[in-house]
Design goal:
Elements lengths: L7 E2 L2 H13 L1 H17 L9 E7 L4 H4 L2 E10 L3 H68 L5 H35 L14 E2 L5 H11 L1 H23 L4 E10 L2 E10 L9 H50 L2 H10 L5 H32 L5
Length: about 375
C-alpha cells in the first residue's frame, strides 16, 4: 500500500474556517451525541434476565380436610452461556463502525464548507475585477459628460457609457448578494457563529499524483468503504449471536410448598426445547450478510468511476486554466484599448465591444479556476 502525503500551503484562513466548522457544526455535534447513545445501546441487553418471584396462596375446601396450600417460586432464566460472549463481540464491532460513520459525515460537511470558501475566493476575485471595471466606466462617463457639456463630445458616447455602467452595477450587486449568501451558508455550517472570509488566494498543493496512486490511497482511507466493510463484520457476528440464540435456554430456581402442616422445598431446573421460535432467523441474518457484501462491492465500483471522472475533470480543467493564464498574461488588451481610444483610433462603441471580449475571457478564466480548485478539493476530501 502506497500512501503519499499532500503538503498544503497558504491556506491558514481556510484551515481556520474548517477548524471552526468542525468544532461548532450542530449536525456534527448532534451526530456525535447520537452515536454515543448508540454505543451505549449496543452494550445494553447483554445481561441475565430479571429473576421472577411468585407467591401462591390457595384456601382449601373443606378446610378441615384440605387445609391451605402455599407455594413460593424464585426463578432465574438465562440464555445458553456462549450467547453473552458473542453479544459482547457484536457490540464491539458495532462500536467500531460508529467511528467510520462519524468520519464520513465530518468529511462531507467540511468538504461543503471548503467548497463554499473556494466559491468565496472566486467571488472576491471577481468583485475586484468588477470594481475595477466600475471605476473605469464611471471615469469614462464623467469624461464623456464633461466633453459633452463643453460641446466637444457626443451624446452617443455618454449613453453607451451609461448602459455599460448599468450592466456593471447589476453584476456588482448580484455578486455582493452571492457573497452575502455564501457567508450565511458558512455561518450556518459554523453553528450560527458568524464567519467572514475575504481571501482571494486559493490553497496551494503539491502536484496531484497519477490516478492509480491517488485512487489507491483514497480507497484505502475511504471511511464509507470502511463503514460498509465493517457492516459485513457486524453481520457475521450477528449470525453467530443468532445461532447461539437457537440453542436451549435454561432456568434455575427455588420452589417452596406448604400444605397440611407439611413443607416441601428444593431446587427447580428447566430447559427450553428449541423447535420453532427462531425458525428462519439464521437464514435471514445470512441474507443480510449477503446484502452487506454486495453493498461493499457496489460502493467500490461506484467510487472508482466517480474518482476516475473527477480526475479526468481535474486534468481537463488544469489544461484550461493553464491556457487562460498563458494567454491572459501575454496580452494587455485593456491598456491597448485605452490607448487606441485616447488617440481616436477606435470609437467608444468599439472600445466597449472589444473590452467585453477581454472581460468575458477573464470571467471564464475565474470560473474555470474555481472549478479546478473544486475538483482538487473533492479529490482530497479524504484528508479533511
Amino acid at each position: 500500500m502506497c500512501v503519499f502525503t499532500i503538503q498544503l500551503q497558504a491556506q491558514s484562513g481556510l484551515e481556520t474556517v474548517l477548524s471552526d466548522v468542525a468544532k461548532n457544526n450542530k449536525t456534527l455535534q448532534t451526530q456525535s451525541k447520537y452515536w454515543d447513545a448508540q454505543k451505549l445501546l449496543y452494550h445494553t441487553g447483554n445481561t441475565l434476565y430479571d429473576p421472577v418471584a411468585s407467591y401462591d396462596f390457595m384456601r382449601g375446601s373443606p378446610y378441615a380436610i384440605a387445609g391451605n396450600q402455599t407455594d413460593i417460586n424464585v426463578l432465574q432464566r438465562f440464555d445458553f452461556p456462549t450467547v453473552y460472549s458473542k453479544k459482547k463481540a457484536l457490540a464491539g464491532e458495532q462500536s467500531k463502525q460508529v467511528d467510520f460513520s462519524l468520519t464520513a459525515n465530518r468529511q462531507e460537511i467540511l468538504l461543503g464548507a471548503k467548497k463554499i470558501c473556494i466559491e468565496l475566493i472566486y467571488r472576491n476575485k471577481l468583485q475586484e475585477r468588477i470594481i475595477e471595471r466600475k471605476t473605469k466606466t464611471e471615469k469614462f462617463l464623467t469624461d464623456f459628460q464633461t466633453k459633452l457639456d463643453k460641446g466637444e463630445g457626443n451624446v452617443l458616447d455618454v449613453n453607451k457609457a451609461k448602459l455599460q455602467l448599468i450592466e456593471i452595477n447589476k453584476d456588482y450587486q448580484l455578486n455582493i448578494s452571492a457573497i452575502n449568501q455564501l457567508h450565511q451558508k458558512l455561518t450556518e455550517l459554523n453553528g450560527g457563529i458568524e464567519i467572514v472570509f475575504n481571501d482571494t488566494i486559493y490553497p496551494e498543493y503539491e502536484p496531484v499524483p497519477a490516478f492509480e496512486e491517488l485512487e489507491e490511497t483514497i480507497e484505502y482511507k475511504d471511511p464509507v468503504r470502511k463503514y460498509l466493510t465493517q457492516q459485513t463484520v457486524v453481520a457475521q457476528k450477528d449470525i453467530e449471536v443468532t445461532k447461539a440464540l437457537t440453542l436451549p435456554k435454561f432456568e434455575v430456581g427455588f420452589h417452596y410448598q406448604g400444605i397440611l402442616g407439611q413443607q416441601f422445598y428444593g431446587a427447580k431446573v428447566g430447559v427450553s426445547i428449541p423447535l420453532w421460535e427462531n425458525k428462519n432467523r439464521v437464514k435471514q441474518k445470512q441474507a443480510e450478510l449477503s446484502v452487506a457484501e454486495v453493498q461493499v462491492a457496489r460502493h467500490k465500483n461506484e467510487h472508482y468511476y466517480h474518482l476516475k471522472q473527477l480526475y479526468e475533470k481535474y486534468i481537463n480543467l488544469q489544461k484550461t486554466v493553464a491556457e487562460y493564464e498563458k494567454v491572459l498574461s501575454s496580452i494587455n488588451s485593456i491598456k491597448l484599448l485605452d490607448k487606441a481610444l485616447s488617440f481616436g483610433e477606435i470609437t467608444t462603441i468599439q472600445y466597449f465591444l472589444e473590452a467585453s471580449y477581454f472581460y468575458t475571457a477573464t470571467n471564464n478564466y475565474l470560473q474555470a479556476e474555481k472549478e479546478y480548485n473544486d475538483a482538487i478539493a473533492e479529490l482530497y476530501q479524504y484528508l479533511l
